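Help! Submission page says 'invalid entity' but I think these are all valid:
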Amino acid sequence: MYCFFMNLKGSLPTLILEALSRGPSHGYEIASNIKRRSRGVLDFKEGTLYPALHTLERDGMVSSTSELEGGRTRRYYTLTDKGNLALEKSKLEWQRVSGAINGLLGGAT
Amino acid sequence: MYCFFMNLKGSLPTLILEALSRGPSHGYEIASNIKRRSRGVLDFKEGTLYPALHTLERDGMVSSTSELEGGRTRRYYTLTDKGNLALEKSKLEWQRVSGAINGLLGGAT
DNA sequence: AAACAATACATCGGAACTCGAGGCATTGCA
DNA sequence: TGCAATGCCTCGAGTTCCGATGTATTGTTT
C-alpha cells in the first residue's frame, strides 16, 4: 500500500530543543521522550539523533557536559538562550507551514 | 535570526496529488496553485517540482499527455486511481504525524 | 523595435535530513 | 551465560530540496 513518508525534514532540531526546554537531558532520554510523548508516532533513530545534537551544540543552541552515572557515560544537554529563541521561532514557523498544508489538504480554496 | 526550515520532506508529492484531485493540470500551474492557495507559504521550486512529477508518473500515481497550446508545450497530468488511493493514505499520515508534532510543540504531556 | 517579465519545460550539482548497519561498553534480568 | 535495555558514536546510502543553468514562446512595456 503506497503512502508517502511525511518525514518532516527539519522537525527534529525543534523537537530536541522543545524537550530540553523542560530541563537538561541526555540523548537517549530525549529520543525516548519524543517517542513516548508522541505515542510512538515520532521515532527518530540514533543515527539521526546524535548528529543532530552535535550540530545543535556546534551552532550554540545547546551546551553539554559529559557525566559518568552508574558506569554509563551520559552527555547532558542544556538549552542555551540562543536555543530557546530558536525554539520559539521554529514553533511559529511550524504553525505557519503546517497550517498552510492543513489548508490545502483539508480542502480550502 | 536562527530558525529551522521545516522543509517537510515528502509533503510535495501529496500536495501535487491533491492539486490533481481537482482536475488535470500541468507543472507550472500546479506549482503556482500551491503557492497561491497557501498564500505564498508553500513555494516549491522548479528544480523540485518537475523531478517530483516524473517520479509520480514513474510510480503510476499520475499519467501525462504532452500538448501544444498557444506555442507553449504543456504536459498535462491526470491523477490515476492508484494516485488517488495514495492521496487518501497520505492525508491520514499527515494528520497522524502533524498531530503528534502539534502535541509536543503545543505543550501536551 | 528592443527589452523584459511571465510562462513552460528540463537537468545538474550540492546541501541537508534520515535511516540502517555497525561498533563499543555497562547494567540488570532470566 | 545469554539477552535486552541503556548509552554513546560513526559511516554509507537514499531521498528531498534548492539554486543555477539551459531552451523557447508570449505578452507587455519602453
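Support: the input was valid. A stray whitespace character was the problem, and the output above is from the cleaned input. The first helix of chain B runs from residue 11 to 20.
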